Amino acid sequence: MKQAYLGIDVGSISTKGVIIDDGNNILSSEYIWTEGAPIDAVKRLVGLLEKQFDKREYKIVSTGTTGSARKLVGAILGATMVKNEITAHAVGTTAFYPDVRTILEIGGQDSKIILVENGVAVDYAMNTLCAAGTGAFLSSQAKRLGIEIEDIGDIALRSEHPASIAARCTVFAESDLVHKIQMGYQKEDIIAGVCNAVVANYLNNVGKGKRIVSPVVFQGGVSKNRGVVAAFEKALGCKVTVDPNGHLMGAIGAAILAKNSSIRKDFDFAVEDMDFRIREAACGKCSNNCEIICVYRDGKLIDSWGNRCERGSVNIP
């Protein structure tokens, strides 16, 4: 039976999963909304992946997790590899674009830039304060204008005179957008201005002080927006590559990391039928007063973390 590898990327907005083979070919993939419940999202995701997966020909021998809930999901799935999203995105991207020098990534509520040299991530930055350079900002402005988020890119490309939208922060950008609406600007010009504002905010905040070198690969959900891609190409003065699976690249990277690990552990799809509970416990055994996170599967403790010294360690049966 052939070997396969599962990678899952759990973010605040979306949860992504892929199953790959030894050649990094995608055997199964899904992209769903997290909806504030990462455990439920992952269980749902696993069920969807299973429907596409040929268990007669392949078996999953290792699992990798990444994203904001990577440790929690790793404990639930019995992952053999748990890595941060910077590493996962870099590994996934360089596997398909070995010459890449700059990785731009914009998701629903966060964004990041990764600089690569000789296939290795050497520097990175993430947004910290402002949401004006994220998918959530685009989505809220599309709703304000009565436009489907999927149509923003095509509408923006129709503009011949993009409106100038303030890009300093979400509050200023939204105020400026409302002003432009009241002034009677064409909808396509406003949308193009919003796309330009997203790019300007990203470059002025996330990319500030970074030397952006071609080849450039753009990924994350916002990479599907042709208006934002065009705005990046104009601002950077170079071609920006968008991979068809760029929205899944974190999960792909996690799967590749699991594949390259020497640890093997068969994955059981029955996880979707298991009951998981998360409980917090205050240690109180020293001045650190750590909050210990305990993960239970079907009533049995399977993992814990949060202690900063051995006094807070929890014995796993």
Structural description of this entry:
- The chain is α/β, with parallel strands linked by helices and 317 residues long.
- The chain is built from 9 helices and 13 strands.
- The chain has a 5-stranded mixed β-sheet. A 5-stranded mixed β-sheet has the order 8-7-6-9-10, with helices on both faces.
- Strand 9 (216-219), helix 8 (226-236) and strand 10 (240-242) form a beta-alpha-beta unit.
- Helix 3 (85-96) crosses helix 9 and helix 6 (170-182) packs antiparallel against helix 7.
- The radius of gyration is 21 Å and the shape is globular.
Give the strand order of the largest sheet, numbering strands 1, 2, ... along the chain. Answer: 3-2-1-4-5
Evaluate the radius of gyration. Answer: 21 Å
Major pleated sheet: 5 strands, mixed
| SSE order, one letter for each helix or strand | EEEHEHEHEEEHHHHEHEHEEE
Overall mean pLDDT score? 87
DSSP helix fraction = 25-40%
Question: Which structural class do the helices and strands define?
Answer: alpha/beta
Number of helices: 9
Distance from N terminus to C terminus (CA atoms, Å) equals 33 Å
Low-confidence stretches: none
Oligomer: single chain
Name the overall outline.
Answer: globular
- Percent in strands: 25-35%
- The tally of beta strands, per DSSP, is 13
